[in-house]
Design goal:
Layout lengths: L20 H18 L3 E3 L9 E7 L19 E6 L6 E8 L10 E8 L2 E11 L4
Antiparallel strand pairs: 1-2, 2-4, 3-4, 5-6
Length: about 130
């Protein structure tokens, strides 16, 4: 399964809410397999041609890292499979699958940093992001 590139109409379509658990698990497993071949920090289902509201995100495992805990501080986020070691950074990336995400709040502060996207290879751009999102 390859990464869908810019110009493919699937990247402009609205994804559907995923209800069946078997479909959710299958989508997350496909995202994980794609991340294993790319060492991606994150990947959305449309990037592999699946119109589900789902994505996989990675965070390096660092002792007492806020990335390991949700905002209520009641435990780590669930991890999908085994960590993948990034060849670029040498960090062990643990992935969490997110299904049917819904934004309920965000910071007023904006951070700007360079980002890349597997669907737009060879390009890095400054992207503004909220400092945190619930």
């Amino acid at each position: 399964m390859g990464i869908v590139k810019l110009g493919n109409p699937v990247l402009r379509q609205v994804s559907r809410k995923t209800i069946r658990r078997t479909r959710q698990r299958a989508t997350i497993e496909k995202l994980y397999k794609a991340c294993k071949t790319t060492s991606a920090w994150g990947l959305a289902a449309p990037q592999i041609g699946i119109l589900d509201r789902a994505f996989l995100m990675a965070a390096p495992i660092v002792q007492n890292d806020i990335n390991l805990k949700n905002k209520k501080n009641d435990g780590p986020l669930p991890v999908v499979e085994k960590p993948i070691t990034s060849e670029e950074s040498g960090l062990s990336l643990f992935y969490t699958g997110i299904i049917n995400p819904k934004v309920t709040g965000m910071s007023e502060e904006i951070e700007v940093d360079y980002e890349t996207c597997l669907s737009i290879p060879g390009i890095a751009a400054l992207v503004p992001r909220h400092s945190w999102i619930d």
